[in-house]
Amino acid sequence: MWDVLDSVLEVDFVLASNRSQRNTSPSGGGKSPSWRMIYKEGANPSSSLHSAGFHPHSPVTPSDRKSLAAVSMVGLKPSDVPPPPAVKVLSAGMAGCIADLVTFPLDTAKVRLQIQGEKGVTGAAEGIRYRGVFGTISTMVRTEGPRSLYNGLVAGLQRQMAFASIRIGLYDSVKNFYTRGKDNPNVGVRILAGCTTGAMAVSVAQPTDVVKVRFQAQMNLQGVGRRYNGTMQAYKQIFQLEGLKGLWKGTLPNITRNALVNCTELVSYDLIKEAILRYKLLSDNLPCHFVSAFGAGFITTVIASPVDVVKTRYMNSPPGQYRSSINCAWTMMTKEGPTAFYKGFVPSFLRLGSWNVVMFVSFEQLKRALMMSRDRFEATT
After folding, report:
1. In terms of pTM, does the model score above 0.90?
2. Distance CA 117, CA 202 (A)
């Protein structure tokens, strides 16, 4: 079998061989390794390629891309060759938008449950009470129409293109920066990279999050005044009435929340997945990823829900209602008790778990599609 593969692939028609040839001087006469050597050296294809001269963070050349078809013939995946950061950033933003389109009603229901109990509700909205995620969705459809479930969608998509692109798309690059190119980073480095990209993403995308939350909290009822009539008008009005500080309102609790979400998601997902594979409950495929993502979503929701509720209430509050995010949390504790911090827990869990699954599956497929499109374009030029 190996002789056949060697003859078909002609020994040097391989990513690692291309890299080795570029890294070996002509005078040295170094011979590129064959597929037999590369694939048999270790159980991990990535490690074998690395030992043969292929480094996952080095540039991918046109000669490398021509070898992707050969890669699949011996059981390696094109994903063993990491896409460049630009592809990851674009794929992450697009995948975040797809996930938001699927899960946005759950996010809107979560916001409505989280702000329930605040003062300032008047008119027709006074008699409306939300009970549970599906009860909230059905109440909104009955009283405001189905379009109310997607209030703030435009700002939500803007947020994902800025937020997910940085938080997820730059994660590997930041992790590589902290490890200085070393493989197999420890958990501490991964947590640090997640905190870094999460904080960067919040700092850039916070205005979109403020507008999204305020639209989701806004009721479309007769006799109830609308704060905003359009996304761009909302940005303009917030800036005019509250200044730049209003657009970045709630940045501190949002950074705290996303640091918790990133770190908890990363560690819990890895531990759940490793346990599933260790005990051979599932193989390393979509069902395993699905279960791991939902498990990580549940743990993350338990940890991050109190901060998320404070963030939502503080960003949605009118000027002067709370002096700070800490004052908002103290007011909730004294007036509504500790259970207020877990309002909207079920929709938060459903949204985070389903969002993770949709996002990561879309992310992987989009990366492959963009890489294939790029390869076809470069092959014709």
Report:
1. no
2. 27
**pLDDT class for 127, splitting at 50, 70, 90?**
low
Residue 132's contacts (CB-CB under 8 Å, 6 or more residues apart) are 346
- Residues 223, 230: contact at Cβ < 8 Å? no
Q: Give the model confidence (pLDDT) of 327-343 as tens digits.
A: 888 998 988 888 888 88
DSSP 321: S
Q: Distance between CA atoms of 259 and 99, rounded to whole angstroms?
A: 20
**Two structure tokens written together for 242:** 């509250």
Residue 32 pLDDT > 90: no
Backbone angles phi, psi at 52, to 5 degrees: -90, 0
The label of the residue with tokens 């918790």 reads 260
Burial 31-41 (b: 16+ CB within 10 A, else e): ebbbbbbbbeb
Nearest 10 degrees: CA dihedral of 198, 204, 210, 216? -70
Residues 11, 6: Cα–Cα separation, whole Å: 5
Beta carbons of 332 and 292 less than 8 angstroms apart = no
Task: Tell me the CA distances in angstroms from 15 to 38, 56, 68, 203, one per residue in order.
Answer: 10, 11, 8, 39
